Amino acid sequence: MNDYLPKFGDTRVPLNLWDKVYESDSGCWVWTAATTKGYGTVRFAGTTNRAHRLFYQLLVEPLPKYDPKSGIELDHLCNNKPCVRPHPKHVHRCTQEFNLARRTIPSGKDHCYGGRTHCSNGHEYTAENTAIRIMKDRKYNKEYVYRQCRTCERSKSLEWYYKNKAQKEGN
User: Fold this and answer.
1) Is 0.85 surpassed by the pTM of this model?
2) Is the Cβ–Cβ distance between 13 and 59 less than 8 Å?
3) How many CB atoms within 10 Å of residue 38?
4) What is the phi/psi pair of residue 129, to 5°?
5) Residue 58 contacts by C-beta under 8 Å, 6 or more apart in sequence?
6) Distance CA 109, CA 74 (A)
7) Which residues contact 108 (CB under 8 A, 6 or more apart)?
8) Which of 2, 85, 103, 140 has CB atoms 3.0–4.6 Å from 90's, for a disulfide?
């Protein structure tokens, strides 16, 4: 990503697209036209695109065609799906691994997993049972915070220990 931060109304985006966007108090550039699963959708140059991907490509850099196997995607750090603002605090490029890890941050009910009170195995997220971890994305030089259930972590660790102990004794 280049160091230039685009301004609202940038002329590289056609005026008919800016007509469908407003700047919110939080700094998001909110898409007001068609949406699919909460994400802005737009027909541009003969193809249907996610609005945040199109704005990123017009204002920052080209993106490869979306491919879940590539592991590269755009992440809404602002947790606002209709936001189309290419900015380090709003929509930025990251790996799928880090995007998924970030989704488990206890960041409030507006985040897709932020309102969860229990892990996927049913253990409650309490102060004693929740470990806060930091994951580093070396490619994009960013840090992401996520939460981990200590009970599940302990269980996986013990499972690994006994599995390896049995293999060593078997040799």
Assistant:
1) no
2) yes
3) 11
4) -105, 10
5) 12, 13
6) 21
7) 79, 114, 115
8) 85
Domain map (residue ranges) of the chain = 1-102, 105-171
Q: What is the pLDDT of residue 114?
A: 55
pLDDT in tens, 88-106: 888 888 876 666 666 555 4
How many CA atoms, within 13 angstroms, populate the side-chain half-sphere of residue 78? 21
Alpha-carbon distance 123 to 48, whole Å?
41
- Please give the Cα distance from 27 to 161 (Å, whole number): 48
Specify the long-range contacts of residues 136-141, CB closer than 8 Å, at least 24 apart: 137/94, 137/95, 137/98, 139/95, 140/92, 140/93, 140/94, 140/95, 140/98
- The residues facing 161 across adjacent strands are none
Alpha carbon distance 6, 58 (integer Å): 10
* pLDDT, tens digit (0-9, with 9 covering 90-100), for 13-65: 999 999 999 999 989 999 999 998 889 999 998 989 899 999 999 998 888 77
* Tokens matching residue 15: 């005026």
